[in-house]
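Researcher: Structure for this, please.
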Amino acid sequence: MSLSMRAISRQNSILSSHGADAPSSPAFLCMKYDITDLKLLLAVADSGQVLAGGAACLLSASAARQRLQQLESVVGTTLFDRHPRGVTATSAGAALIEHARRCMAALSALRDDLTRHADGVTSRLRLVTTPSCAGVNMVDGLRATFTDCVGLTVTVEEHPASQVVALVASHGADVGVLDLDLHHDGVLVCADSSVEHVALIPKAWYPAIKQQVGVDDCRGWPLIALNHRSAIQQFLEGSGPESAGAAQALDVRATVPNYAAMIGMVEAQVGVGVMPRSALRHHLPERTRIVALDSTWASWPIRLCVPRRDAGQLPTP
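Model: Predicted structure, token format:
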């Protein structure tokens, strides 16, 4: 008997000692199934019917049942509970379905990437940004990159600032954009540019508000805030690294996921929003007014971060 077969026999003995439900076939160790099996698994789970799931995969009912039985034999447990109205996934089936969805998503991404390369795409830039920076127009800053790199594609994702830095440090992203000065040994954070912030005021409130407002004015208003506590909000609270003065509780009337939702809240006269001017392209001027902020804090830094091994590509802060 070969060494590999002895190892399989030993593993089967160990599994059998844990009870009758433990798989005892070497097939369990090999986990042999194909893409059609995974597609069928997902189709049956989504439809709740073996017949409908098989039809979606161009399989007859008997072929679909046989494949499911073989798959259950391979994994060593029941994946679906059968009942007169159809099937429902067991706990083991639900776990396998979750992994199958990830596998199919990865295969779809692989196919898309290869298709883009066949169409002339040669590289991809993965950019992660905080929600507060997603409203900033980054296209101008990337224009030179697109001009110099023919065939470049860019993917953009939104994450909290700490996750932006962590993703860049672990090479899960190529570039991070954030408005907080977070430090991490694996990345270099550079002050790249600044963005003008303004206050968006409900039109009905406008006559009582000055042409230019300061920090204390904003702290006294009912505010709309981003739900991840942006750098601006931390500054107003007095809790951020850029802040000056004692911490102060704000009158936050609503928290929202992005600037578009913040604009909607201001238009509904829920409160005041402080945001980049570039995020106001779609506000309704008949319902709101834009008020300038005091020059001491109207300009807010936007920082880029890259993996430390790529730090030479950015200027020294």
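Researcher: Any notable elements?
Model: Residues 1-29 have pLDDT under 50 and may be disordered. The chain has 13 helices and twelve strands.
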